[in-house]
Structures are given as structure tokens and as C-alpha cells.
Amino acid sequence: MTEKRQIGFPEYPKVEVQGTAIVITYEDGLQEVWGHEANSRIAQATCEDIQLGLRAINYVKLSLAVYVNKLTDELLELDIPGEYVEDIIYEGYLNLQRWFRELSGKSMYINRDRAMK
Predict the structure, then answer these.
(1) How far apart are CA 45 and CA 88, in angstroms?
(2) 36 - beta bridge partners?
(3) Is 73 among the domain residues?
(4) Structural domain that includes position 98
(5) pLDDT in tens, 8-27
(6) Angle at 6 between CA 55 and CA 101, to 5 degrees
């Protein structure tokens, strides 16, 4: 059995049950009520699932920001003029965005086809 690598997820957002409300607290202190659940066990499980998902998204966002900074440094080290680096990174982002849209579209069709069987 392979060992899982431990990843340090960000501390925020935090999700907790307050009465019947499932409340998300962001790093800036802003709170948002996600919804209500009368059953405390379901509320707690929902809370944990939401928190894991939101922290994973935050982790990806922070990791991508670090990598963009690293890419910027690498491009400058390759003697790409500084005034072009931002545009080059942005063009790469746009291409990646198109790829994600295509991937999302394929996923949607795969799920639709499975549902029709």
C-alpha cells in the first residue's frame, strides 16, 4: 500500500454548524450561511464535506499563484523582456481556460450519456 503525502491545507475557510445552520467563515471574517439541516449528524457530515472541498479549492488557488510567480521568474531568467511576461502568462492562462472548458464539456457529455443508459 502506498503512503499518502500529507498536504497542509489552508486554515480557511472554516465551516461549522450553528444551531441548524451550516456557516462558512472566510479568512477575512465574513460569514455565509450555506444552508440549514435539522439532523445534527447530517449537518456535521455536510459541514466536513464542504470544508474539505473549500479548503482544497483554496489550496489549488494558492498553489497556482505560487507557480505563476515561479513561471514569471523563469521567463525573466530566459531573457524574456519584462514588458512581455505578463502578456505571455495571460495568453497561457487563456489557453488553459479553454482546455478546462473543453474538459468540462466532455465531462458533461460523459455524465449525460451514462444517465441515458
Answers:
(1) 43
(2) 21
(3) no
(4) 80-117
(5) 888 999 999 999 999 999 99
(6) 45
Assess contact for 18 and 33: CB atoms under 8 A. no
Are residue 15 and residue 41 in the same domain, yes or no?
yes
Note whether residue 71 is domain-resident.
no
The Cα–Cα gap between 43 and 105 comes to 32
**Judgement on whether residues 58 and 95 belong to the same structural domain of the protein:** no
Report the alpha-carbon distance of residue 23 to residue 15 in Å, rounded. 6
Q: What is the mean pLDDT of the chain?
A: 89
C-alpha cell of 100? 478546462
Q: Which 3 state secondary structure label does DSSP give 79? A: coil
* Residues 62/10, Cβ–Cβ less than 8 Å: yes
User: What's the confidence (pLDDT) of residue 92?
Assistant: 94
